[in-house]
């Protein structure tokens, strides 16, 4: 009790020197399972660990509480808030996410729109950083992603508009799309 640090917000580690990266809804994730060894998996509101650094609201075993567009609560859901949206690695020095190819945003929270100018965008097939040259590990990082400060340039080659799935649904006779990926799928 006399030799531990209590970290300020957005810092972590034994000496509070590591930064925490932005969180977004996870594109993919896995439920945590039976964390307390009780042989049961608690509900979305049964907090197992309160106040950890990365999850200040607590850690639960069950899936997050979600509902469909009609308001019906769905059991066995996913897409909880995760660091770098589970589609990037956190640079603990500066607190920025390095996104996998095909994802961008401060928390890697959305799919990238195709672009000739940005060769790490899926389908471009250009340059050493394109998805066709994707590597699981290299000397620079775990993947050829791009850091959050690199903005999407020349989306749709300057001859189109990049829209979310929610916007596309609305343009189709005013349909409503209100699922977890409404601002994620481009």
TrEMBL record:
Keyword Glycoprotein included in the entry's annotation: no
Cysteine-cysteine disulfides: 99-108
Location of the EGF-like domain: 80-109
Keywords: Disulfide bond, EGF-like domain
A Pfam family assignment: EGF_2
Presence of the UniProt keyword Disulfide bond in the record: yes
Domain of life: Eukaryota
UniProt-recorded name of the protein: Sexually induced protein SIG 1
């Amino acid at each position: 009790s006399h030799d531990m640090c209590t970290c300020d917000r957005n810092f972590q580690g034994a000496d509070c020197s590591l930064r925490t990266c932005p969180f977004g809804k996870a594109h993919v994730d896995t439920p945590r399972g039976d964390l307390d060894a009780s042989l049961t998996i608690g509900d979305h509101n049964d907090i197992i660990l309160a106040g950890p650094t990365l999850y200040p609201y607590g850690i639960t075993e069950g899936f997050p509480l979600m509902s469909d567009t009609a308001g019906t609560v769905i059991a066995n859901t996913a897409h909880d808030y995760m660091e770098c949206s589970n589609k990037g690695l956190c640079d603990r020095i500066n607190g920025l996410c390095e996104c996998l190819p095909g994802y961008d945003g401060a928390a890697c929270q959305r799919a990238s729109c195709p672009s000739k100018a940005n060769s790490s965008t899926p389908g471009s097939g250009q340059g050493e950083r394109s998805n066709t040259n994707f590597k699981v590990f290299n000397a620079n990082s775990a993947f050829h992603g791009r850091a959050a400060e690199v903005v999407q340039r020349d989306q749709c080659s300057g001859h189109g508009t990049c829209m979310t799935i929610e916007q596309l649904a609305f343009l189709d006779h005013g349909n409503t799309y209100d699922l977890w990926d409404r601002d994620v799928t481009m």
